Amino acid sequence: xxxxxxxxxxxxxxxxxxxxxxxxxxAMLVALLTLTGQxxxxxxxxxxxxxxxxxxxxxxxxxxxxxxxxxxVVMSIFAFGAGIVMIFYTLDTLxxxxxxxxxxxxxxxxxxxxxxxxxxxxxxxxxxxxxxLAAVIVxxxxxxxxxxxxxxxxxxxxxxxxxxAAPLFDTWxxxxxxxxxxxxxxxxxxxxxxxxxxxxxRSPVLIAFLPIFILPMLERMLIGSHLFYDAIFVxxxxxxxxxxxxxxxxxxxxxxxxxxxxxxMLAALDLSRFVASPSLWAGLVVCGLLTTAxxxxxxxxxxx
Amino acid sequence: MSSLVSARNxxxxxxxxxxxxxxxxxxxxxxxxxxxxxxxxxxxxxxxxVLGLTDFExxxxxxxxxxxxxxxxxxxxxxxxxxxxxxPRWIRVYQLLDFVEAMHPNFTRSNAEELxxxxxxxxxxxxxxxxKGMVTQLHLSIITAIDAKFLILDEPTxxxxxxxxxxxxxxxxxxxxxxxxxxxxxTHQVEEIENLLTDIMFINDGKILLDESMESLSxxxxxxMTSGDDADKARGFGPIAERDVFGKKVMLFDSVDRxxxxxxxxxxxxxxxxxxxAKVKGAGS
Lengths: 304, 285
Fold this sequence. Notes:
The complex is a heterodimer. Chain A is mostly helical. Chain A has one domain. Chain A contains 14 helices and no strands. In chain B, the strands form three sheets. Chain B has a six-stranded mixed β-sheet, with helices on both faces. A four-stranded antiparallel β-sheet of chain B has the order 11-12-10-13. In chain B, strands 2-1-4 form a three-stranded antiparallel β-sheet, covered by helices on one side. In chain B, helix 4 runs antiparallel to helix 5 and helix 5 runs parallel beside helix 6. The relative contact order of chain B is 0.14. At the A-B interface, helix 1 and helix 5 of A face helix 2, strand 5 and helix 3 of B.
């Protein structure tokens, strides 16, 4: 039932405050760095000021490139933070309830183990990315506002230099797609971490990560193949989302020719290619199997 | 009366250890059943089987349901307080009420709030900020506000002082028990609940040693305080236990005609604790 799932997810947010505290902390840190960055740039004096205000001489496409880069970098800082929170959340959530014995209370209510574990998977795959995405949007607005104030104090036109050039909605639309797509791509890890969290009696972080590094090594040494390495490391860092090779844009050997399309994060994403990827669906099947195993462990494990 | 719980040859093993060993019993509606056993006797495992928290062998029906396969349906009509403070320590009181209200179809929040208003528990407090007694009060308030047919208590007053223990059982009888509801309770402090119970069951090494109503217990078992030659005569009737008290012999008899014991000493109704010790020692010898 949807109302049950919503209540279960709400409970996860109450318990794991890092879901909203971490993005809020990163947002404040980025805003603070922006503020101090502006102050320190001001300290360099007239020359730098002139260069910044002189951005009026740079055409809008180049300003757009710079601002896309800035917005993208900010988003990637949050993405990194979201990854860390997701890992620790999924590893902790089924382990902590057994450790503090609160599992006995949760299981005394009319909720199935499947409903509970699925609520934890949904929290990891959707709630955490959405919390971080909201923080990204707020942070973008804050840092651009800070930059605007600084430019205006130097006599620049912030509307022209910043707001009309910043591809905010394009970046946010891309952020929404990434916030849904990347967790789906990494779903096998969520399944694995939830299973370890339900299974292990101690050190979930160690138990979760040791096989990830040891299995590919053993496979290479014993059989000489690299299936595990490809499935874990090569696959993880190559989601089939990009429609163009972003790296080529910044290739030193190529002339730096920008079009508004080329600097659009949204245009750089190819959702149909992603959805058509067999690797995505194989990963979701693996996630499903491991989540089922986690449900089974929660149901049958009796060390409370 | 209809059976709320019906167990036939229920067993649960952990490796070579038979935690519950071919146990059969019935609990009827409207009864307060005490389940007594020494540590490691299999009480908690049996309760977990009844609650659907562990799988088992044999036939077990609770409210007409298979507890392990139909745990979600079962939990709509069963409440449970475990022997440890199992309320999550991070949660706030109002969050707990919000959550139970969202998850439990038979929970009436206003009833819980009324009961909590009589305590010092604040709605914004976290469970970790409450004393153990207050946590138990909180848990009991929630349980009492759930319109459930069956309440299972596993050492609910462990670690509480005498005032909280007494208050707990008073509240249990006044606020929860209405003659229709059924309670299954385990405790080591048997003397405190002896007068509440309608039925009693002893378990040791996974086996049931005794399963009787309290009325039949006082008819079946008798305690004799005697000394000297009378003690020798009394031994002829086969006491199941004998102990020394202030230089006298206290003997416990099972199903002995009281007329045979008349004139041999003082006859008493045995306490549940003495009966329990006699049964457990007898089973061990």
